[in-house]
Amino acid sequence: MSEGFTITRQIGIDAGHRIPDHGSKCRHLHGHRYVVEATCRPVDGTLQAAGEENGMVLDFGFLKEEMMAHVDAPCDHGLILSFHDEEVLAMLAPPGIDTGAWLEELRGTVCAQGYAATEETRLGQKLYVIPFPPTAECLARHWYERLDPAVSARSRGKAELVKVTVWETPNCRADYGVG
Ligand SMILES: Nc1nc2c(c(=O)[nH]1)N=C([C@H](O)[C@H](O)COP(=O)(O)OP(=O)(O)OP(=O)(O)O)CN2
């Protein structure tokens, strides 16, 4: 990365997941305290020069609001699953409805908007469904893709998202972003 300013905001969420294809313990349903970091830089390399964000890339508070809306609100205390994980998803189908039709509707939503977030499930379990395994890498890319337009809009085109980092444990992280 070239010389210049970046800012990074961190949030933490608790969520469950499983990696269905994993050959060992990660195929079991389990949870993490995910730490998610978003790093931004000024589009033109300079800090804002007027207004309430004078001297800033982007107000940390604005960045937090976007991360809370796009990461925390749909995923915190939820279960993050791949839509290919049909056996687990089927267990969460709301009682009294056709499970196959419910899975088909979920798949349609994921295909249309890249994810499905719902609590209309068995036990009201909060569910976040994505089209790939919920590894740290895939989640970093997914949250990057959700936050990228939000950062541009919130900064009125003055800041851009450089990368999203997902800490799955205190020792393991994945990064996704521009080179
Ligand atoms: N490249 C990746 N490898 C693994 C991922 C991943 O998302 N990307 N995920 C897992 C599991 O989800 C698992 O929960 C984490 O694995 P692991 O580091 O082995 O878990 P520990 O509890 O032993 O972590 P410590 O930090 O050492 O306590 C596996 N691999």
TrEMBL record:
Pfam families: PTPS. The keyword Repeat does not apply. It is an enzyme of class 4 (lyase). Its EC number is 4.1.2.50. It comes from the Bacteria. Keywords: Lyase, Metal-binding, Zinc. Its cofactor is Zn(2+). The keyword Zinc applies. Pathway: Purine metabolism; 7-cyano-7-deazaguanine biosynthesis. SUPFAM superfamilies: Tetrahydrobiopterin biosynthesis enzymes-like. GO terms for molecular function: 6-carboxytetrahydropterin synthase activity. It catalyses: 7,8-dihydroneopterin 3'-triphosphate + H2O = 6-carboxy-5,6,7,8-tetrahydropterin + triphosphate + acetaldehyde + 2 H(+). InterPro entries: 6-PTP_synth/QueD, 6-PTP_synth/QueD_sf. Coiled coil: none annotated. Belongs to the PTPS family. QueD subfamily. Catalyzes the conversion of 7,8-dihydroneopterin triphosphate (H2NTP) to 6-carboxy-5,6,7,8-tetrahydropterin (CPH4) and acetaldehyde. This is 6-carboxy-5,6,7,8-tetrahydropterin synthase. The lineage of its organism: Bacteria, Pseudomonadati, Pseudomonadota, Alphaproteobacteria, Rhodospirillales.
